[in-house]
Design brief:
three-stranded antiparallel sheet; Rieske Iron-sulfur Protein; alpha+beta
């Protein structure tokens, strides 16, 4: 395989679109192997910027927007439908609801405000402090520390950009 073919295959593997115009030179006497003539699309730039900002804990908080790297070791459980993570550092429960959807819910118990004792089964989160269960629906949301013993946990808008979960806490 010649260098040109190798580099082209490498670029495809690394995620560069096949429409990227790549100029290859001979690599003799210190010449540049690769020059990318065209810039990345706006979507590719946004994704790349998010990836670069992800910290060693697997997330990046930008104001009220949480960006989570789903390939980071702290978030690998979210690759399995039905699994959840209590991200206590960001005050959110993350639940892989379906192959396409991850829910982000407040981890503050509506009863007395506990945030670290959650389990999940049968479509509900159960707080182990007093045994109250709360749904994941979009109906009545019980507020944190409101002494509520039923209702749904507050839900935040989410979207997935490739392998990054974006949570909007302003919703």
């Amino acid at each position: 395989m010649n260098r040109s073919s190798f580099v082209k295959k490498l670029l495809v593997f690394l995620g560069f679109s096949s429409s990227t115009n790549v100029l290859l030179s001979s690599c003799e006497k210190g010449e540049t192997l690769l020059e990318v003539e065209e810039e990345l699309s706006a979507e590719e730039k946004a994704y790349k910027e998010l990836k670069e900002n992800i910290g060693e804990n697997g997330f990046f908080l930008d104001g009220k927007i949480l960006n989570v790297d789903l390939t980071h070791k702290n978030y690998l459980k979210l690759q399995t439908t039905g699994e959840f993570i209590n991200d206590s550092e960001n005050y959110v429960l993350l639940l892989r609801k379906t192959e396409e959807d991850i829910l982000a819910l407040s981890n503050c118990c509506p009863h007395l405000g506990t945030s670290n004792r959650w389990s999940y089964s049968n479509g509900e989160f159960r707080c182990a402090n007093h045994g109250n269960s709360y749904g994941t629906g979009i109906g009545f949301a019980a507020n944190c520390s409101s002494n509520s013993t039923s209702g749904n946990l507050k839900q935040y808008k989410t979207e997935i950009n490739q392998d990054i979960l974006i949570v909007n806490f302003d919703t």
